[in-house]
Amino acid sequence: MKWVLVVCLGLGLLTGIAFAQQKVLTIIMEDLPETDIIRALLPEFYAANPDLRVVIDSMPYEAMRDKIMTQFFAPVSGYDIIIVDNPWTDEFAAAGWLTPLDDFIEATPGYNYNDFISAVADIAVYQNTIYGVPFYNYAVALIVRQDIFDARGFPIPRTLKEYVETAIALTDKAAGFYGAAMQAQRGYKIFEECANYFYALGAEVIDAEGRVVIDSPQAKEALRLYCLMVEKAAQPGAVTHGFDEAMRLMAGGRAATMISYNWMLPTLNKPEISGKYAGKFAIYPVPGSKAVLGAWYWAIPHNAADKESAWRFIAWVSSPETQKKAAILGSAPVRISVLTDPEVWEKGFGKDYYLTVLEILKTAKPLARGPYAEQIIEIVGLELNNAASGLKTVEDALRDAADELKKLLGQ
Fold this sequence. Notes:
CATH class of the largest domain: Alpha Beta
CATH topology of the largest domain: D-Maltodextrin-Binding Protein, domain 2
Oligomer: single chain
Order of helices and strands: HEHEHEHHHEEEEHHHHHEHHEEHHHHHHH
Helix content: 40-55%
CATH architecture of the largest domain: 3-Layer(aba) Sandwich
Structural class: alpha+beta
Number of domains: 2
């Protein structure tokens, strides 16, 4: 028995030594299904990288930015890898808080950076340097109850005017059914939704020369139509509602359309989410065919302790092979090869879904770029909500937004 005990203790000691030699990478991520998909794939990473282990610190979106920025100012970051939302990329890169990745990418065989959809990858490029690689997209799309459109004989709207008219026509407030499940909540949500109306009419917040143009005639007409939708076709309380409320309305069979993240389609079509309405939802490009582009990026803090090991994880998790496996599990792809892979179509959510997403991503555009993107979103999101809530006229809200943006940008 003593011999067995000694052997067991020896094995335990060896195991402890092996574990102690493993580098632990800590990653901050949003608490989303995408994060669970990464967790599910980690055993494959460990098999190829036995000297590394991963700890994922997941949390609500609202908590992430402050926690990330706190670590930027530490002598050594507590996070080896961070995921960065697209409004933060230019700000973080301009401040010198992110590690340039060009050399890492170039030194990684078979990585094929050019396989990323350019509109997505370009957001993490600042002054010709790559500071992040795409994780997943949340470009928005038009999600509809296809059975309702078919039964009523309504074509899928292709223009903004058609969309507004169709949503109003499908609304029956007495029956508690609405043409559009809207998320007009102050801040990011209303801007993310209303910006599609801007793009549909050729309106911009800031033009290609950097000038504030949010009070243009096109922008005024876009916001007028948005406010009309809130009044005539949206659920009560839409001006205080975000993603969760709009999602529940759609899943509960109480709305005909929703402008929201493209990956909501497979979620809504799950019986455990939408019950008897599962399988009745379809996806199309937003009216006007230029959507708001959102995306997350893998990045390495400037003060990370072991950048080589951090890149090993990023290279694996964002590789074509891992992206394909993640897509089959339900992730939102950002590589062309994955979106056009017949095996992904078959095992995932069908050819039409992935090719529609690819079409959307090719022309989609983020809400704001530059070091002040987060502040721009706050300013515009406030004034759009003021208009939708009836606190200000369309003209006054856009004038006030323009004035604040000009102050911010020194114009």
